[in-house]
Amino acid sequence: MLRRLYDWTLSLAAGPRAELALFLVAFAESSFFPLPPDVLSVPMTVARPERAYRYALLCGVASTLGGIAGYAIGALLYESLGLWIIQLYGYGDKMDAFRDAYAHYGAWIILLKGLTPIPYKLVTITSGFAGYDFLTFVGLSLISRTLRFLAVAWLLKRYGEPVREFVEKRLELAAVILLVVVVGGFVVVKYVV
């Protein structure tokens, strides 16, 4: 079953709607969706390394636009949708501390967390909730998210063939590693950040 899913994802990478799917996942991840765009961008880049930077730029722009939606959720819908999303990650009781942190370190929070695999929706919703300057938020998001995806693209472009060979020979292990990274991001958010 895992092999079929892997083959399907690689076929999606070559399909006519691959970039649209990647755009939608990157957009949604920055506002409400739990999975990072890496689940699509990595196999797409491995399948078509000549498009690595194109995919990275697409993810950066889509993630920033999704971040604007997340900002709106925090600014306009916090009491309903925003609080529900934040509570899913175990941060419902920490929002006042976040607001205080944003008053002093907002730019650093956006830049640093935008570069990590920590769910970016926490940053976008919190930025809106905290009333962080919107244009500064958009600029910092565009910089940090694009740099994050460009770094992944560079690594895959440079080491993509060995990565592809590893994944194809040890698909189950690769799936476990990906799962650990995704779950690890959630654990870091819940217990460390």
Automatic annotation (TrEMBL):
Q: Which residues form the VTT domain?
A: 60-153
Signal sequence, start to end: none
User: Membrane-spanning residues where?
Assistant: 52-78, 134-156, 171-192
Matching InterPro entries, A to Z?
DedA_domain, VTT_dom
Query: Which UniProt key words apply to this protein?
Result: Membrane, Transmembrane, Transmembrane helix
Q: Which domain of life is it from?
A: Bacteria
Protein name as annotated: YqaA family protein
| Species in which this protein is naturally found | Methylopila henanensis
